């Protein structure tokens, strides 16, 4: 289907959106529901090429297109909104996930209050729509009721993550996790074929090429000393205490949570630990997210795993 050649493994998406364009029966709002990294953002980019009249596959609609508003969740730092990329560049210490804020939803309303300047319609894409607090979601609801000459696309992991009233005003476009053949095609075409030789990374990704790339990049930032030291659980209390200190000295909290995910995967695959130990790792993740002192979390978890 013209415009969607780059989208792999989502034939139903291509069919639904392609038919909507072919029959000129566009919904005022769409919900692209599925796991991150399986093609939701790419599908949105392909779709808006058609919506905004850029149907040549070699031309990518830029996010500064006058009739496009692409909304990302943001952090708030000293009164200034920062996207995740901007927060990382500025070294902002993140104590919570970014959200789509009420002010951003109001900006959507203002954007749609004027007619499109170049294209036949305006388009709004909202990433991580599930991150909207209730006030922002309710404000968006009013816009969805009367979007005017526009199409609004929400990206979210599933229907349950949004208010039912929002879901009811959108046409749902389901996205599915990819099989190994499709994962191979996407990763090789993206220049990340080496990930195919990392079974733990592929297992963590669970059919999401985007997640596989992110996990591989994170794994590359973990010191080899840590990976070797945690390949099996420390056998003594002294070694457990030393490893806890090394982990918290080497990694920030976000990286520590990822490392616990990775350890759960390799321990489960190896069969070398009990279900109780896997549960202790899960509890450690929850404690880190609750901002419990990291070294204490690791000490308790590693010492508790000895002999389990």
TrEMBL record:
Entry EC number(s):
2.7.7.7
What keywords is this UniProt entry annotated with? Answer: Nucleotidyltransferase, Transferase
UniProt superkingdom: Bacteria
Transferase among keywords: yes
Q: What class of enzyme is it?
A: transferase
Concerning InterPro entries, the annotation shows:
DNA_Rep/Repair_Clamp_Loader, P-loop_NTPase
Instruction: Give any single GO term for biological process.
Output: DNA-templated DNA replication
GO MF annotations for this entry?
DNA-directed DNA polymerase activity
Answer whether the UniProt record assigns the keyword Nucleotidyltransferase to this protein: yes
The name of this protein is: DNA polymerase III subunit delta
């Amino acid at each position: 289907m013209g415009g969607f050649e780059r989208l792999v493994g989502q034939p139903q998406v291509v069919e639904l959106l392609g038919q909507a364009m072919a029959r000129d029966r566009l919904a005022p709002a769409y919900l692209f529901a599925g796991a991150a990294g399986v093609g939701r953002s790419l599908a949105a980019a392909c779709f808006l090429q058609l919506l905004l009249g850029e149907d040549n596959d070699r031309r990518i609609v830029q996010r500064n297109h006058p009739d496009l508003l692409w909304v990302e969740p943001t952090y708030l730092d000293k009164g200034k909104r920062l996207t995740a990329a901007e927060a990382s560049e500025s070294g902002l210490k993140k104590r919570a996930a970014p959200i789509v804020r009420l002010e951003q939803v109001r900006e959507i309303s203002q954007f749609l209050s004027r007619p499109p300047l170049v294209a036949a319609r305006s388009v709004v894409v909202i990433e991580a729509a599930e991150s909207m607090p209730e006030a922002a979601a309710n404000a968006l609801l009013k816009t969805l009721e009367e979007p005017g000459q526009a199409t609004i696309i929400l990206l979210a992991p599933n229907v349950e993550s949004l208010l039912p009233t929002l879901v009811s005003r959108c046409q749902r476009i389901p996205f599915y996790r990819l099989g190994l053949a499709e994962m191979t095609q996407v990763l090789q075409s993206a220049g990340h074929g080496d990930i195919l030789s990392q079974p733990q990374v592929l297992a963590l990704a669970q059919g999401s090429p985007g997640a596989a790339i992110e996990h591989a990049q994170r794994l590359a930032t973990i010191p080899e000393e840590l990976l070797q030291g945690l390949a099996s659980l420390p056998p003594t209390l002294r070694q457990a205490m030393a490893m806890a200190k090394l982990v918290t000295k080497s990694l920030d909290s976000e990286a520590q949570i990822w490392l616990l995910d990775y350890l759960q995967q390799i321990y489960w695959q190896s069969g070398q630990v009990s279900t109780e130990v896997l549960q202790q790792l899960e509890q450690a993740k929850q404690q880190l997210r609750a901002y419990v002192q990291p070294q204490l979390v690791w000490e308790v978890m590693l010492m508790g795993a000895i002999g389990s």
